[in-house]
Structure formats: C-alpha cells, structure tokens
Amino acid sequence: ALGSSFDLSTAEVLGAGNYGYIITCRSKQSGDRVVVKLQSVRWAGVAVKEWAHGSQVSGHAHIVSYIEAIMHRDANSEIENHLKAGFDNGILKRRRPKFFPDCYFCLALEYMD
C-alpha cells in the first residue's frame, strides 16, 4: 500500500523515536520529498490521535502538513530491509529488534528542509 503512493526506492532512514521509525522518500504523485512515520499497529491509537490533531492545525506556515495516513503490510519486507540497513550503517542507534512488524501504520508529512 505504501509503495502505491510513495517511491520506496528513494527511501532514506532518518531515525527512530518512542513509537517507531522515520524515513524520507518521494511522493509518486508530486515528486516531492516527504517524511513517513512508521509505527507498528500496537501504536495505532497514538498515530490516529496525532493524525487528528495534525490535520486540524495543518495550513499554518510553521507547522508541517499531514499528507496521508496508510496502513501498510510489509509483505515483501521492503521496510524491514531499509530499517535493517539503517541499523547496519549506524543511523539507527537504539537496540535492534529481533523481529520487525509485518504491518505499519504510516503517517506521511510534508518534508521541510
């Protein structure tokens, strides 16, 4: 599902937080770089609250816009492989999990550089 909206071949791992991982990639529709927050379904409630709040305040010049929310099943392990590479090359510093989720709740946000 994520690959239908975003070009995952352009994905770069940025980091990790309390609830998941952050990558950047390009939107297939616009070609713009976006930020995608990847959270396991365990944190779906947190993601839904963030999406609801972020959608309400989008449009302000100093707040990133929320673009899309997607439930992604990582059937081909594409996300898992990007995350493993992030651990291997030292971008992701926290403890590497033994298992990666097979499904992610993904929030796509405007990339501000």
Verbal overview:
The protein has helices at residues 2-5, 44-57, 78-88, and strands at residues 6-16, 20-27, 33-40, 66-73, 103-110. A hairpin with a 3-residue loop joins strand 1 (6-16) and strand 2 (20-27). The longest helix has 14 residues, at 44-57. The mean pLDDT is 91. The chain is of the alpha+beta class. The chain has a single domain, classed as Phosphorylase Kinase, domain 1 (2-Layer Sandwich). It comes from Alexandrium andersonii. ATP binds at residue 37.
**Helix-strand pattern, N to C?**
HEEEHEHE
Strand order of the largest sheet: 1-2-3-5-4
Specify the structural class. alpha+beta
**Low-confidence segments:** none
Keywords: ATP-binding, Nucleotide-binding
Organism: Alexandrium andersonii
Binding site for ATP: 37
Protein name: Protein kinase domain-containing protein
Helix and strand topology:
Layout: H1 2-5, E1 6-16, E2 20-27, E3 33-40, H2 44-57, E4 66-73, H3 78-88, E5 103-110
Q: Quick summary of this structure?
A:
It is built from 3 helices and 5 strands. It is α+β, with helices and mostly antiparallel strands and 113 residues long.
